[in-house]
Write a structure and sequence with these properties.
With about 375 residues, this protein is α/β, with parallel strands linked by helices. The protein is built from 16 helices and twelve strands. It comes from Sphingomonas crocodyli.
Amino acid sequence: MICIVEPTYAGFDHAPFNAAIIRATALAFPDEPIAFASTPEHRAHVAQLGDLPAGLRTIDIDVPATGGQSVGRIVAQWRALRTAIRASGADKVLLLSSAGETFFAIRLILWAFARVRLSVVLHGNLVYAVGWRSKDPRHRLIDYRTGLRVARSDRVRMIVLEPSIKEAAIRLGVLGADRFGVWPHPINEEERDGGAPIDPAAMDSGRPIRIAFLGAATRRKNFHLFVDLVRRVRAKSARYRFSLIGFQMEDFSDAADVVDLPAAPLDRAAYIAALREVDYVLLPLAAPYELSASGTLLDCVTTARPIMALNLPAARAIADETGDIGFICDTMEEMETLLLSGDAVADPARHAAFRAHLSAAADRRTPAALAPLIRADLTR
C-alpha cells in the first residue's frame, strides 16, 4: 500500500505538481492500492486539474498554516502523518512537500512504524539548508538544518526536482545531498500546449511582442527588476507589451503605467489561458532558485512558451537536454540590449525552434516518463 501525503499546503499551492505525481505513481504501481492524504480543500484543487486515478482512496488530514517553526508544528505534522499511515495501512509513504517540522515528524514516524519507508520531496525550503542561520539555540534546535540531520535514515529517501538542484546542493554543502534522489519536475498534461508562432505579418501591422512575468510579484522574485527593465525598454521602444500573469504579493501599483496588472489573483485556468496568449516569459530569478524548482519555468515547458531568463541553472540544464528554450542572459543589462536590438527576439524560425525544444522537454516530464523513477525509488 502506498500513501501519498501533502503535509504542508492546505490550499491551492503545489496542486499542479501533486496532481502529476499522483498520476505518475498510479502508472508506476498499476496493481497496488494508493491513498492520497490531504486537506479536503487541497484535494478539491488537485481534482480540478484532471481526473484522479480510479480507485484512489482519499484521507482527510489537518495541515497548519505555513510559516514559523515550533514544537507545536512538529506535533501537528506528526499527528497528520500518523493519521494518514494508520488509515491507509501503507508501508510506502511519499511526502509531496516538506518544511523544517517535517523532518522531526519523520523521525517520530520511524520510531512508531517499523515497516514504513518514506520518500520526501524537497521543494523551495531547501534554501534554508544553507546561508544565514539563527544563533538562538532554541531556533537552531528545531530548524531546517537540524531537521535534515534528525531525519537521516536508510528508510528515508530525500528527493529533489531536477539534476541541477542536486548538483547545487552538493556544491553548497547541504547535508546528505550526495544521497538525494532526483526526479524531473513533472508537468500537468491537461495543460500542455505546443505554443503559438510569432507572425511577422501581424507585427508589421503593429501587433506588439507580448512578454509576461509569471506568478507572485515580489522583490524576492525580482519583480522590481522586471519593472525597472520594462521602464527602460518602453522609454526607447514601442515594440513590446508587458504583463503580470499572477498576483501582487507586494504593492507594485506604481508599475501600472508600464505593465498590465491583473485586477485580482487569477485562478489556474485563467492563469494558463493568459500564459497561452504571450510570446515570451521573462524570468529574472536569481541565486536562491538554484536550490528550488521553479514552477513558473515548468509552466513555460508545459505550454511551450520561450523564456528570457537570468542565468538560471534549471533553465540551462533543460537547454542542455533538448536545445535552446529561449534567451539566457547573465545580467538585466544584457537582457535590455537583447530587447532593444529586437531582431533575434522577433525571429520566427528561432522562436519555433525554442517551442520545439520546450515540447521535447515536456515529453521527458510527463507522468508516464516519471513513473519508472518513482517505482525505483519507492521500491528501493
